[in-house]
Design goal:
Layout: H1 9-14, H2 25-48, H3 52-77, H4 85-96, H5 103-114, H6 132-136, H7 140-149, H8 155-169, H9 178-207, H10 210-240, H11 257-261, E1 265-267, H12 270-276, H13 282-287, H14 296-307, E2 313-315, H15 318-327, E3 330-332, E4 337-339, H16 356-372, H17 377-394, H18 397-409, H19 415-439, H20 444-449, H21 456-464, H22 479-490, E5 495-497, H23 504-515, E6 520-522, H24 532-555, H25 568-577, H26 589-597
């Protein structure tokens, strides 16, 4: 990113058209009236409605209407809504009431601090990142809180705690604005108390109980407020956090770097922009906050035309947000680069890499395992098979990979026959996932009763000759059951090479299940590769081996039958007798699919 050595903030402002500063009273009044009417109408509907099918969409609409009013109030606080300063103050205070914000406290913290020191270390408080050293110094509870707030689920928690609570409700104003903030506290507190009492009485009248009155307040006011916190928290996150967003140490920061490096210009869907009033065109807003919201598109276009190589613009999608929450956890101000929790000091325990999403996934796996024990296995197998067939029918990237590789392996088969084999492989994988859920409670004896080796005599011959053996598991059978059962069935130590999972908690549980019977797991990272002749032989014969195994899979089908697998001799004969397509090269499913589509 350019550092701005050849241009100044004045140059950027000079490229803005003069009409960007023209205010239209109607373009400000109509959206304000519309958003107030929407908020009032949705609140009345929430008073009358109890059906969950209607409550959820009404809650979302209420949260968006509160957010819309808040953004218009934010414009008023910048003096960008009306020419008349008094009109800005009055309407700004009214529009901030549903979000319980103090107008003068917001003006001080947002206008003077956030806009005055955008993305500056120790100054800007909006999504200010911690360094790895600061994170390591946190308590265990503090680390957990940080992981929650900076996860994909934590935007609302962050905003309501770090911005609304700390810098709004608990804000200690300087003497110059103390009386104004005190007046705002009285107004907002009176509004909150009045709404609470009115809804409590309405609920008591409707439901006849105090609990009914509390429920009325929760569904009409509390839930929309909490959802508003998530909407605005996510919005400000998108503006100031991302792999291409830079924060600067105090000594390196300039008034140009703040808005040009520390903010974003992104395009969102029209329905969302309908409520959020162009706020995602954030670079021009930080270049000059006096620009009204309806002039931001023109200002953004002018900046991109003149400085398109210095500031980017893109369509923002959900995957961009999810990627940011994985990558942008901590910040190295010396290198000016985002990093994850893996960058903490070397003394940090390995569990430091566990994120909030990992905890959710792990607890979900444990819950699914507990529920699976209460349902007959045959029912679950039927359900899993049905879901697998639906997933295969819906298509997607992995289905395309499967069909692409099957086309390479079986060019002589019809598309319907290859589709049948692919569908069965998806079903088999679904059953393998069920094995993981059930084996958590199986004893070693119960595990061994469910696993059979076909062609065991070939393995015995190889071991008797002192040669050892290589077992190839590719989810054709069930690696999850075969790995822990292999040492007892083979009568010899067995070590499996297995790719580690992304979730460290699930990986730890998986390792415990796989190694409880004496099996050893080896992660590919850092493991020594076989000698070159061995690798060449494996690459040459692998495709023929898979052909034989897949044909064996296609002949199966009974979910209650023992696990099937091709014998060693069968695989060896198939490898010698069937020519390998592609001259022994490993198959890249993405490349092959793209080649087939060309």
């Amino acid at each position: 990113m350019q550092d701005g050595a050849d241009y100044t903030l004045t140059d950027v402002i000079a490229c803005l058209p003069a009409n960007c500063y023209e205010r239209d009273a109607w373009k400000s009044a109509v959206p304000m009236a519309r958003d107030l009417a929407t908020y009032a109408g949705v609140s009345i509907a929430l008073v009358l409605v109890d059906s969950p099918w209607l409550l959820v969409p009404l809650w979302v609409l209420a949260a968006l209407s509160v957010s819309a009013l808040f953004i218009l109030a934010h414009d008023a606080a910048h003096g960008a809504l009306y020419e008349n300063p008094r009109a800005n103050r009055v309407l700004g205070r009214i529009a901030m009431l549903p979000s319980l914000h103090l107008y003068d406290a917001w003006v001080f913290g947002h206008n003077r601090i956030h806009h005055g020191h955008t993305a500056r270390q120790h100054m800007d408080y909006s999504w200010h990142p911690l360094t790895p050293e600061q994170y390591c110094a946190l308590s265990r509870i503090g680390k957990l809180g940080h992981r929650l707030k900076w996860s994909c689920f934590g935007a609302g928690v962050y905003y309501l705690h770090e911005v609304w609570w700390k810098h709004m409700i608990c804000f200690r104003p300087p003497a110059k604005i103390a009386s104004a903030v005190r007046r705002d506290r009285i107004v907002v507190g009176g509004w909150a108390a009045g709404v609470f009492l009115a809804l409590l009485m309405a609920g008591w009248s409707s439901y006849g109980t105090l609990a009914g009155g509390l429920w009325m307040w929760i569904k009409v006011f509390a839930v929309p407020f909490l959802l508003f916190g998530w909407v605005i928290g996510w919005t400000t996150y998108v503006h100031h956090v991302g792999p291409d967003v830079a924060w600067h140490a105090r000594r390196r920061w300039t008034k140009l770097k703040g808005p040009m490096h520390g903010t974003t210009t992104v395009y969102v869907s029209r329905w969302l922009n309908f409520f959020l009033h162009n706020i995602f065109l954030h670079v021009p807003h930080h270049i000059d906050a006096r620009i009204p919201w309806y002039k931001l598109p023109a200002a953004s276009d002018a900046i991109l035309e003149r400085f398109g190589d210095r500031v980017g613009a893109r369509v923002y999608r959900l995957r961009d947000y999810l990627r940011s929450t994985r990558v942008c956890r901590l910040y190295d101000f010396e290198r000016e680069a985002w990093t994850g929790y893996g960058a903490v000091a070397s003394g940090e325990p390995s569990t430091g890499r566990v994120g909030f999403a990992h905890l959710i996934q792990y607890q979900g796996m444990r819950l699914a395992s507990a529920l699976a024990q209460q349902i007959p296995r045959a029912w679950l197998q039927g359900l899993a098979a049905g879901i697998a067939r639906v997933v295969f029918a819906l298509g997607g990237r992995r289905v395309r990979w499967t069909l692409s590789n099957l086309k390479i392996a079986f060019p002589e088969l019809s598309e319907a026959e290859r589709g049948a084999i692919g569908r069965r492989s998806f079903v088999n994988f679904a059953w393998a996932l069920l094995d993981v859920l059930f084996m958590d409670r199986w004893t070693e004896r119960e595990l061994l009763e469910r696993v059979h080796i076909l062609g065991r005599e070939h393995l015995d011959d190889a071991l008797a000759a002192g040669k050892g053996a290589i077992l190839l598991g590719c989810h054709i059978g069930s690696f999850e059951l075969g790995a822990p059962a292999a040492p007892a069935l083979a009568g010899t130590p067995v070590a499996w090479v297995s790719r580690p999972m992304k979730n460290p908690l699930v990986q730890r549980r998986f390792t415990d299940l796989m190694t409880r019977t004496g099996c050893t797991l080896i992660e590919p990272r850092g493991a020594a590769l076989p000698e070159r002749p061995v690798r060449a032989a494996l690459a040459r014969d692998l495709r023929a081996v898979l052909r034989c195994a897949l044909l064996d899979l296609a002949r199966g089908g009974d979910p209650g039958a023992p696990l099937r697998g091709a014998g060693v001799a069968d695989l060896h004969d198939a490898a010698r007798s069937r020519p390998s397509h592609g001259h022994g090269r490993a198959t890249d499913p993405v490349r092959e699919h793209r080649r087939s589509q060309a």
